Structure formats: C-alpha cells, structure tokens
Inverse folding.
C-alpha cells in the first residue's frame, strides 16, 4: 500500500482535510483521512500543497492556481 500526504487533501466527497493522506492499494484509493491516522508516506513538502484524489492517480497543485 502506498501513502501520499500533503498540507491539504481535497476528497471528491466531504470537506478538505488539513494534513491529509491518501492510501492507494493496487492502483485504487483505499482510504482518505488525516496523516496522523494513515501515516505520512510520501509527503509533498511544497508550501500549501493539496492532493486531489483522481480517477487513476493522485495529483498535486499549489492552492490558488
């Protein structure tokens, strides 16, 4: 299982998660939550980054762009 985390995770359903993480298992999103619960795994350290779980991958972009 791969874990990616960022300052913000923006799930398809539900509010944005500060210090969030996404667990990916076999190419599919297995869980979305706080990094304190799922672990940091691969952390995107850019200032004010967000992970947006997509249909096939987790992408990142700077907030406000």
């Amino acid at each position: 299982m791969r874990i990616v985390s960022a300052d913000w995770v923006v799930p398809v359903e539900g509010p944005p998660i500060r210090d969030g993480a996404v667990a990916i298992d076999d190419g599919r999103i297995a869980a979305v939550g706080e990094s304190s619960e799922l672990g940091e795994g691969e952390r995107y350290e850019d200032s004010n980054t967000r992970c947006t779980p997509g249909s096939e991958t987790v992408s990142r972009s700077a907030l406000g762009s």
